[in-house]
């Protein structure tokens, strides 16, 4: 039995019965990494020596009967989440040597449970992109087909989980950056409700949209991970003080009589025919196990991408002004302070990051603010109202996660707008703040995974897990492995 | 259409130095995106409140207590250049 192929839940049982040790799990993880990482390149940094030290710590904990759900479980962390003293680059040259002086709240919570860090995963620079092709370091390959992208921006985390190079991972999602790569890599990715998971220590991209969430092999593991990372944090002023339920207990309840909304605006021209057919079959399946499909409308869906590219780039242009070659990271030379700033940013940021900073600066600049930023925030209100009205009629909304399966490496790099449109089904969820999951719902004829998106009400991750688990267990897509 | 002069102006505001070639390329790429974004004008947003926060939470305050924070030494560790507790930058005043 190769332990790296198992889920958190399966490993937990074996660990607690003392049939296996954390070090044995890690041995299998690293033999997988030795075999495949050269081809897939999920990671920017692999922390092997530290991992084995953490495994020993976890082992002591288990021996003393002090285990928590994630004790001794090897996880991968997206490289825009700060880990104290461990290189955190955001896949950018401008942070190529950054050693965070503090630990993010999410990884602090994992540390308290004695998890094992395998490494820091690749992403599009500053999480800006949908393919990991914008990483300063390298492009990650899709474990199902090495000519294809793994999606992005959390492509390294999704690929590492799909390739069994870790047991589960953390990603971040600003416009689909957890769900779209999960969909492309045939794994489960959750974007929690805005405010449910602390972003303290997450390197900011667009602060009104960013959320951290888990990428896992199945729905149960997703709930187990959320149980640990969710909850109020005084260090994040957008963190919402609410009681967090036990998400694992939501799993296994049937979905009889649950109303699932099917928004007509998501089944449109440009939607790949295999994706469309597969998602429709999944809806039929949900109906056959008790859900009631209801046709709904989210009328402002067609404006979500345009709204997003104003809101996200405006916030990014502000957030990324801190990279000036003074406090940390890369510095270029210059004859005076201004030239040093301008050269450091020119050489430190990649093309896509510069493009977005420029677009955001334009949208916020004098004379354009009302026409762009304010207008976008008003349309955002209408998008939120769309969801609010829909959720008066239904308990969850079902859509495809992405309009296509994983595209080819290089296919969309020359046309930024085409790349932006690949997030068309995930973006409105971030604008509205609501939670959503992507789970595997089938494969194309070429054996590429297809993802199903389940969207819920604010702070109702329980219903999402309930629907996702019922569907998952009625099919066996989650058992298929990429390698 | 974003004119080259506009792109140069924005680059200065954003503190990014660009080559002439990059300015050309950004002018056409940004123009395409700005044109696409222009579709928002189709919607009448008169009397629509702009979203400031998706979850209704108000100003967040903490108690004004002194707490341990990171030391200057730790904060300077990542600096490209520092000396005696200060960040070093190119000369500002002649």
Identify the notable features of this structure and list them briefly.
heterodimer, A: 483 residues, Amidase signature (AS) enzymes, 11-stranded mixed β-sheet, 15 helices, globular, B: 94 residues, mainly alpha, Histone, subunit A, two-stranded antiparallel sheet, 3 helices, 2 strands, 35% helix
Describe the structure.
- Helix content of chain A is 39%, strand content 13%.
- By secondary structure, chain A is an alpha/beta fold.
- Chain A has 2 domains: 3-257 and 400-479, Amidase signature (AS) enzymes; 259-301 and 381-390, no CATH class.
- The model of chain A has no long low-confidence stretch (mean pLDDT 96).
- Helix content of chain B is 35%, strand content 4%.
- With 94 residues, chain B is mainly α.
- In chain B, a hairpin with a 2-residue loop joins strand 1 and strand 2 (86-87).
- Chains A and B meet through helix 9, helix 10, helix 11, helix 12 and helix 13 of A and helix 1 and helix 2 of B.
CATH superfamily of the largest domain in chain A: Amidase signature (AS) domain
Count of discrete alpha- or pi-helical segments spanning 4 or more residues of chain B: 3
**Care to count the β-strands of chain B?**
2
Instruction: Write down the secondary-structure element order of chain A.
Output: HHEHEHEHEHEEHEHEHHHHEHHEEH
- Under CATH, the topology of the domain at 4-41 in chain B can be stated as Histone, subunit A
Structural classification of chain A: alpha/beta
Mean pLDDT of chain A: 96
Q: Give the uncertain stretches of chain A in residue-range form.
A: none
How many distinct domains of chain A? Answer: 2
Radius of gyration of chain A: 21 Å
N-to-C SSE string of chain B, H for helix and E for strand: HHHEE
Q: Quaternary status of these chains? A: heterodimer
Please tally the helical runs of chain A, counting DSSP H or I stretches of 4 or more residues: 15
CATH topology of the largest domain in chain A: Amidase signature (AS) enzymes
From the N-terminal CA to the C-terminal CA of chain A, the straight-line distance is 15 Å
Helicity of chain A, as a percent range: 25-40%
* Bulk shape of chain B: flat
Give the number of DSSP strands of chain A: 11
CATH class of the domain at 4-41 in chain B: Mainly Alpha
């Amino acid at each position: 039995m190769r332990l790296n192929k198992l889920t958190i839940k399966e490993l937990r049982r074996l660990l607690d019965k003392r049939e296996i040790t954390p070090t044995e799990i890690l041995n299998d993880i690293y033999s997988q990494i030795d075999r495949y990482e050269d081809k897939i390149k999920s990671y920017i940094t692999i922390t092997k020596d530290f991992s084995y030290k953490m495994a020993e710590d976890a082992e002591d904990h288990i021996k003393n009967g002090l285990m928590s759900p994630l004790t001794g479980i090897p996880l991968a962390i997206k490289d825009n989440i700060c880990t104290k003293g461990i290189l955190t680059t955001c896949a950018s040259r401008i942070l190529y040597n950054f050693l965070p002086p503090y630990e993010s709240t999410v990884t602090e919570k994992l540390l308290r449970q004695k998890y094992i860090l395998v490494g820091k995963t690749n992403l599009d620079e500053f999480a800006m992109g949908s393919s990991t092709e914008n990483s300063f370091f390298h492009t990650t390959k899709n474990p199902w087909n090495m000519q294809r992208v793994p999606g992005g921006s959390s492509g390294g985390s999704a690929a590492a989980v799909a390739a069994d190079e870790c047991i589960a991972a953390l990603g971040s999602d600003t416009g689909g950056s957890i769900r779209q790569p999960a969909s492309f890599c045939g794994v489960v990715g959750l974007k929690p409700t805005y405010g449910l998971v602390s972003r303290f220590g997450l390197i900011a991209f667009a602060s009104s949209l960013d959320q951290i969430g888990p990428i896992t092999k199945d729905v149960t593991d997703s709930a187990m991970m959320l149980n640990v990372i969710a909850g109020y944090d005084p260090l994040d002023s957008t963190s919402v003080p609410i009681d967090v339920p036990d998400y694992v207990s939501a799993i296994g309840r049937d979905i009889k009589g649950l109303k699932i909304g099917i928004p007509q605006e998501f089944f449109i021209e440009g939607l790949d025919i295999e994706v469309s057919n597969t998602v429709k079959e999944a809806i039929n399946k949900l109906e056959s196990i008790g859900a009631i499909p209801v046709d709904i409308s989210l009328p402002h869906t067609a404006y979500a991408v345009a709204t997003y590219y104003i809101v996200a780039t405006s916030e990014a242009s502000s957030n990324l002004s801190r990279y000036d070659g003074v406090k940390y990271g890369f510095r270029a030379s210059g004859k005076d302070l201004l030239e040093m700033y301008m050269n450091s940013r020119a050489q430190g940021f990649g093309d896509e990051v510069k493009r977005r900073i420029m677009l955001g600066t334009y949208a916020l600049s004098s004379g354009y603010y009302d026409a762009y930023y304010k207008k976008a925030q008003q349309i955002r209100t209408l998008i939120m109202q769309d969801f609010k009205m829909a959720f008066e009629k239904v308990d969850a909304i079902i859509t495809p996660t992405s309009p296509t399966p994983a595209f080819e490496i290089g296919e969309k790099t020359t046309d930024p707008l085409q790349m932006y449109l690949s997030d068309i089904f995930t973006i409105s969820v971030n604008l509205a703040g609501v939670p959503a999951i992507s789970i595997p719902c089938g494969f194309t004829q070429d054996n590429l995974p297809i993802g199903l998106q389940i969207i819920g009400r604010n702070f109702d991750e329980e219903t999402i897990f309930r629907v996702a688990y019922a569907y998952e267990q009625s099919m066996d897509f989650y058992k298929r492995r990429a390698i | 259409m974003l004119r080259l002069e506009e792109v140069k102006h924005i680059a200065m505001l954003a503190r990014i130095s660009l080559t002439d070639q990059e300015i050309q390329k950004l002018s056409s790429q940004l123009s395409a995106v700005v044109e696409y974004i222009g579709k928002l004008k189709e919607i009448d947003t008169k009397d629509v409140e702009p979203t400031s926060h998706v979850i209704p939470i108000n100003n967040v305050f903490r108690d004004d207590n002194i707490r341990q924070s990171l030391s200057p030494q730790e904060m300077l560790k990542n600096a490209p250049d520092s000396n005696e507790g200060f960040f070093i930058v190119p000369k500002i005043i002649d």
